[in-house]
Amino acid sequence: RMETDCNPMELPNNTGFEGDSDYRDFEGTDVKDMRLEAEAVVNDVLFAVSNMFVSKTLPCAEDVAYINVETRERNRYCLELTEAGLRVVAYDFDQTDDRLQTPYHETVYSLLDSLSPAYREVFGNALLQRLEALKKDSQS
């Protein structure tokens, strides 16, 4: 399952069996719309890539969404997001290639880390700046 930052105030409090995947198929219990999940993924890492957005051409459903990403190296990918994770399904926006057998990544961070050295550098620098800021806060 993809993990994203979430504000507990945004969660409905009547979903029942939240963490229990055995109950996920029952109506009204923890059914995720993958488009919302995809939007969260995009918002999380947009700062570290050239361009990233949820596909408006490919169909989104409760169990699948597609994300277009252009790395800072100017490489384009179409990513598939499912409960299994994220994987590259094409080397261009809004495409899928059934012949591509790419591995699933549990997180968008690990997927982008494997595709883009520039992403790794930008993300690492952002992390360092955050840590420095925390260090300053704790010293004051």
UniProtKB/TrEMBL annotation:
Region (Disordered): 1-20
One CC-aspect GO term: cytoplasm
Transmembrane region(s): none
BP terms from Gene Ontology: regulation of canonical Wnt signaling pathway
Any one GO MF annotation of this record: kinase regulator activity
Superkingdom in the source lineage: Eukaryota
Domain GSKIP: residue ranges: 34-134
Alphabetized InterPro entries for the sequence: GSKIP (IPR037395), GSKIP_dom (IPR007967), GSKIP_dom_sf (IPR023231)
Family, as annotated: Belongs to the GSKIP family.
Full protein name: GSKIP protein
Biological classification of the source: Eukaryota, Metazoa, Chordata, Craniata, Vertebrata
